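One record is given unchanged without comment:
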Amino acid sequence: MPFSIDQLKTFVTAAEAGSFSAAARQLGRAQSAVSTAIANLEIDLGVTLFDRAGHKPELTLAGSALLREAVQAMESCTRLEHFAAGLAGGTESRVTFAADDLIPEDVAASVLRHFGRQWPDVELEMLMGALGDIGEMVAGGRADLGYIVPLAPLPVSAPAQLVHTVRFIPVASPAHPLAGRGDLSREDVAPHRQIIVSSRGGERCVDERVAHRPWWCDGNPAIHALVRNGTGWAFLPEHAMQQDIAEQRLVRLHFAFHPVPHGAPAYIMWTPTRPLGPAGRWLRDTLTEIMTIR
């Protein structure tokens, strides 16, 4: 006969309590029931778990080795019970979150850390993109929700909440020819290489174009790296540039012809293809609350 979870529980309790009588008290059973359960487990496993020759039963070598396995099996059963209870209550098994790479790293890290603590049995998948990539993933159902800084109007089919404005400033390496030159005209700036964000789908941020022959890149982190090594200049999010400017790895350029800083609206958006479960709603509401007051 295969052994049961109850037998494993009795075995673990007896080993930890130090005697069958103490285990019986903890489990609220008769000592004879504990003894019988362990004897049956020994038969099922084909090994002797306890040496009963002394005043108190002592774990055998085989019993000590199997105790570790039994404890792990009990922990797995507990996780299974919690996971099943969550699913029965409507909790998702996975949440997919798509984020524009402009998302403030400190906010994302803090919220996702708390998500892991609040929903330990929910898998999280995080997708990154730029411009229209996020809207496509959320509106099409690839992602449950997303943080988006769009160029075009949001898809009308997907609900969204405006959370804040991302402010952009022109920056360059301290060694760049434009660095430290005061108020710059369009004619001053246009000959110098500008690096501008684009999406994987080909969407381009043409409103930011100043240079005659810009480079296009589908991620702001890569643009950031290229600007730091002096390849070109770019409009980058002010919140992500503060430390580099303070530590003189980048300098802020001063334009006489362009609003500095200029801003773009940021939204939390969620898919219309299926309702969000409790974990998805928690992530949406927490991000919205923190971003709105930022």
In short: The CA atoms of residues 144 and 241 lie 30 Å apart. The chain has two domains: 5-88, 92-294.
